[in-house]
Amino acid sequence: MRIGLVGKPNVGKSTMFSALTESLVEIANYPFTTIDPNVGVAWLPLPDSCACKELRSKKEGAGRLDAPSPDDPRLGSICVPNTGRCSNHTRLVPVTLIDVAGLVPGAHEGRGRGNQFLSDLARCDALIQVIDVSGSTDMEGNPVGSGGSAPIEEHKFLLEEIECWIIGILDAGWHRGTRRVQAEGDKALSNYILEQLTGIGAKERHVSQAISEVISKHPGAGPPWEWKSEHLSTLASSIRNDLFPISIAANKADRAVEGSLEELSLMVNEAGGSLVLTSAEAELALRRASIAGLISNNPGEPFFEITEKGKTDLTEKQEKALKSIAQSLEEWQGGGLIGLLSEVVFGKLSRRVAYPVQDETHWTDGDGNVLPDALLISEGTTAKGLAYEVHSDLGDGFIRAVDARSSRVIGADYEVQDGDIISIYSKT
Ligand SMILES: Nc1nc2c(ncn2[C@@H]2O[C@H](COP(=O)(O)OP(=O)(O)OP(=O)(O)O)[C@@H](O)[C@H]2O)c(=O)[nH]1
Ligand SMILES: [Mg+2]
């Protein structure tokens, strides 16, 4: 799972990256602070309890396990995650984030840092556009104090730039490529487009959907080698929408300009995306205080406790500032950065979780580790598809799978449901 952070310069992309991945990156109040992309992992809590909760209660019921002691550091969790961690049955799973250079209007013509770096986003499952809702920066990301660019303009230009980037990939050999239709028939058109766009992750269904959109929207478009820029634009827009669904972090919400978001919110909702108010800077402050051991706070939660260390080290002013940050985060609906990420992954992308295990009785791997993996899978993933997600050898040698809850054998075509625990039998 990969999610790209995009937007004009100086909106808080790197601040957001840093808060979510708990890593140090360069952050500054001027455009193009980031040039080479930052890549890191954010830990996303699963919306439902980890399956280890169910296992614990089964074991407790059978008298094979005592209730967790009050000083259990993991608050009852009994899984052994290969990646991430689990406490109080809240399981964290990895999501890769990519923070890229800012994009300015005209990037496809080489303005700013151009749009070459968009290829870093090519394999992303979704994008989050970070928008400055404080009006403190212009379209190029220059600090202007107030009266900066309108959020809706920031969004529209970003869509346009990504579409121009896609058109740029298609344009070069368009005439020659699409002429193949004359000799090879209609299929040659989708084949040509697919060849050009596989590098950015396009699949046949994206391409055929896009071609149908051009034909229905422009009935007089003529043969593809005569298509004009508006036809290619419809094509690119359809592909962009499918390939890179965009949600919005309405950032710098701590200094939001009243009434600047209604129009944008409507537009994003109509396109099926989400918009969440965020303050990356505020969340970063909480993360840093938590990492320094001054407060105890889980990512995404607006409340915290001051630790013993915090009680001695924090000044009254610092304590007040942290409390006011937490209060603001609570007031903005949507759960901040983690809430947005969760909405993108589980809402927009409809990801489900599956727990592959080797031993269907004990829900363990070969070494006895309980529920070692919690994988995010797409809707429609089959048992065999899940085997491939674990390892290509497991997929190639797939014999059958077993639903560990019911001990029933399931076939290769069974559609994996959210929360399924599945053991896979394979020749290898
Ligand atoms: N008030 C406020 N300022 C913020 C917030 N998030 C980031 N900033 C500030 O905005 C400025 C730009 O932050 P960056 O994270 O470097 O922005 P960027 O989008 O990565 O910028 P480029 O790499 O130049 O494209 C910094 O001064 C941050 O401290 C926020 O939520 N509220
Ligand atoms: Mg940056």
List the keywords:
428 residues, alpha/beta, Rossmann fold, Helicase, Ruva Protein, domain 3, seven-stranded mixed beta sheet, five-stranded mixed beta sheet, 14 helices, 37% helix, flat, binds guanosine-5'-triphosphate, binds magnesium ion
Describe this structure in words.
This protein is an alpha/beta fold and 428 residues long. The protein has four domains: 2-163 and 245-277, Rossmann fold (3-Layer(aba) Sandwich), CATH 3.40.50.300; 167-241, Helicase, Ruva Protein, domain 3 (Orthogonal Bundle), CATH 1.10.8.470; 280-331, no CATH class; 352-426, Beta-grasp domain (Ubiquitin-like (UB roll)), CATH 3.10.20.30. 37% of the residues lie in helices and 16% in strands. It is built from 14 helices and 14 strands. The protein has helices spanning 13-21, 52-61, 151-171, 174-184, 187-197, 204-217, 229-243, 262-270, 280-291, 308-313, 316-331, 336-348, 383-390, 392-396; strands at 2-6, 38-45, 86-87, 90-99, 126-132, 246-251, 275-277, 295-296, 305-306, 352-357, 375-377, 398-403, 408-410, 420-426. Strands 1, 2, 3, 4, 5, 6 and 7 form a seven-stranded mixed β-sheet that branches. Strands 11-10-14-12-13 form a five-stranded mixed β-sheet. It has a two-stranded antiparallel sheet with strand order 8-9. Helix 8 links the parallel strand 6 and strand 7 (275-277). It starts with a strand and ends with a strand. The protein binds guanosine-5'-triphosphate and magnesium ion. Guanosine-5'-triphosphate (GTP) is lined by residues 9-15, 27-29, 31-34, 101-102, 134, 141, 251-252, 254-255, 279-282.
